[in-house]
């Protein structure tokens, strides 16, 4: 401190030769320069600095308020989204349970329908087999009957002579005539 005071006192001892020169004593000149600059800055820049700081403070406060409002809005949206999510999860569980039961019902219906179709096909197969058996039996009967008829005709033709043939025809005509008289 003594140096600072001494530097102010030594101002009166400078030679006034009218020459301009540099004071190379750093310790003596820096505090004077700093005090002058700070004094000027405080005097002229105080209002500007206060305005800048007030504007900055207002912007920071408004940003904080906006952030708080946005935060509250985000929290409300989050709560609404959570509520919707719970509802959707409940609905999804219901759909899942209904879907499983629906799938089980469809599966049961499909199995029943398949069993019914198989039963109908089995019945159709049995009916077809029975029909084919009856047709085969009828074909065999017809062949047997045709062969028996041909055999009988062959036997009759070989055994019958024309006299026996005429007598058989007359007897049959007589039988027919008697039947005709009965019906009249």
Automatic annotation (TrEMBL):
- Compartments where located: Membrane; Plastid, Chloroplast thylakoid membrane
Instruction: Please name the InterPro entries in this protein's record.
Output: ATP_synth_b/b'su_bac/chlpt
Q: Coiled-coil annotation: which residues?
A: 64-98
Per the record, membrane topology reads:
Single-pass membrane protein
Predominant localisation class: membrane
Q: Where are the transmembrane segments?
A: 32-49
Q: Would you say which domain of life the source belongs to? A: Eukaryota
Instruction: Give the keywords, sorted.
Output: ATP synthesis, CF(0), Chloroplast, Coiled coil, Hydrogen ion transport, Ion transport, Membrane, Plastid, Thylakoid, Transmembrane, Transmembrane helix, Transport
Q: Does the keyword Magnesium apply?
A: no
**Which Pfam families does its entry note?**
ATP-synt_B (PF00430)
> Which Gene Ontology cellular component terms are annotated?
chloroplast thylakoid membrane; proton-transporting ATP synthase complex
A GO molecular-function descriptor: proton-transporting ATP synthase activity, rotational mechanism
Known role: Component of the F(0) channel, it forms part of the peripheral stalk, linking F(1) to F(0).
Could you describe the subunit structure of this protein? F-type ATPases have 2 components, F(1) - the catalytic core - and F(0) - the membrane proton channel. F(1) has five subunits: alpha(3), beta(3), gamma(1), delta(1), epsilon(1). F(0) has four main subunits: a(1), b(1), b'(1) and c(10-14). The alpha and beta chains form an alternating ring which encloses part of the gamma chain. F(1) is attached to F(0) by a central stalk formed by the gamma and epsilon chains, while a peripheral stalk is formed by the delta, b and b' chains.
Similarity field = Belongs to the ATPase B chain family.
Misc remark: In plastids the F-type ATPase is also known as CF(1)CF(0).
User: What is this protein's record name?
Assistant: ATP synthase subunit b, chloroplastic
Q: Which organism is this protein's natural source?
A: Iriartea deltoidea
Q: Which gene encodes it?
A: atpF
């Amino acid at each position: 401190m003594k140096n600072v005071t001494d530097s102010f006192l030594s101002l009166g001892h400078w030679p006034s030769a009218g020459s301009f020169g540099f004071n190379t004593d750093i310790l003596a000149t820096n505090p004077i320069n700093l005090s002058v600059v700070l004094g000027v800055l405080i005097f002229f820049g105080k209002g500007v600095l206060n305005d800048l700081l007030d504007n900055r403070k207002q912007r920071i406060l408004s940003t904080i308020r906006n952030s708080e409002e946005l935060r509250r809005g985000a929290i409300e949206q989050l709560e609404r989204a959570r509520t919707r999510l719970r509802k959707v999860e409940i609905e999804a569980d219901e759909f899942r349970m209904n879907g499983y039961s629906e799938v089980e019902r469809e599966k049961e219906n499909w199995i029943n329908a398949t069993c019914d179709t198989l039963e109908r096909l089995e019945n159709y197969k049995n009916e077809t087999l029975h029909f084919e058996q009856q047709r085969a039996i009828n074909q065999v009967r017809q062949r047997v009957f045709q062969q028996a008829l041909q055999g009988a005709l062959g036997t009759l033709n070989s055994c019958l002579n024309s006299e026996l043939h005429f007598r058989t025809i007359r007897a049959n005509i007589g039988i027919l005539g008697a039947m005709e008289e009965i019906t009249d």
